[in-house]
Amino acid sequence: MTLIFIVIGCLLGLLVGFLLPTIPYSASTYLAIAIIAALDSVFGGFASYVKKNFDMKVFVSGFFVNAILAMLLTYLGEKLNVDIYLAAIIVFVGRMFNNLGIIRRYFLYKLDEKSQAKKSSKIKDSTTENK
Amino acid sequence: MKFKIKNNKDKMVLSIISALLAVVLISLSVIQFKSVERYQQSDVEGLRDDELKTQIASYQSRYNETEEQYEDNLNKINEYKQTSNDNNSTTLDDEVSDAKTLLGLTDVTGKGVIITLTDTDEAQYTSENLRYLVNELKYAGAEAISINENRIVNLTDIVTINESYIVIYGDVRISSPYTVKAIGDTSYLTSTLNMKNSGFVDLMRSSGLDINVVESTNITIPKYTKEFSTEYMKEDN
Known about the structure:
The complex is a heterodimer of chains A (131) and B (237). Chain A has helices at 2-19, 25-50, 56-80, 84-130. By secondary structure, chain A is mostly helical. Chain A is elongated. Chain B is an alpha+beta fold and 237 residues long. Mean pLDDT of chain B is 83; it is low at 1-5. Classes of the chains: A mainly alpha (131), B alpha+beta (237). Chain A binds chain B through residues 1-2, 4-6, 8-10, 12-14, 16-18, 20, 22-25, 28, 31-32, 34-35, 38-39, 42, 56, 60, 63, and chain B through 11-32, 34-36, 38-39, 45-46.
């Protein structure tokens, strides 16, 4: 059910995005960093779901607070004439890969388990046939 | 049962929140994609720093080139101006005024002869006489001729209308006494006119007409006042 809701949300998001106007170029950096932060939160949430320690509050707060914080840092960086958003991107993307690794390993483990189960069942079958 | 409902509720909340987050994330991404795409298409404002730098550099070199060309052209123009100040325009002006003088479009002065022709009771001057006189004067090297202050130019016609009066330029009526002025070498003019027997003076006098030739060092002949209009002839290129 959650998956269906997410798919519906994605489609709705596409529609809303196409309806809304484009933003000025100077603001696109902020939006980009916010999107990266949000994506990081999504992967983090998925990874924690896989690790069975998923918390809705942590996920939602991380989603928004990270995005806003990243935007504020970008603004500060612009004022200081230092590209702080690069640091934010490095951190977020690094964490994304980290979380992706966790998810990947989880699925690999699952796949391994399945094939193991199949093998064991097959062995069982063959032994019964032999008998 | 109760636990299950609670679990379902939790799942519902989770699903709705996830959907909302998906909406936010995807819509923001789409906006960003659109914006980036637009700025990649549009110029300058959407360009990255290094692209802008290269563009500025190319524009700068182009600007320098153009400025050099501009200076070259400016120098050329100055040269032309100087040379034209030196001679071109003055020679052109000279040519124009020369052509005007030759055509008879300017008042001219000089030495020459004044011939006065007066009808007598015995005979009257005809247009043929006047044409003959003009031709004689031209033969004698007259540079400018006028009859009764009417300049004789290359298109001038002298004709008799109804055998009674003489018309010049087709519509200017002239009558005796005729004052013919001619600028040229006075000695040539007088000697041509005064040739024994065949000269114009003798011919007229033998016909019983009155003619008087006076040399003058300062004759003013007025300019041709009418328009030169050509209808059929065109410049052949």
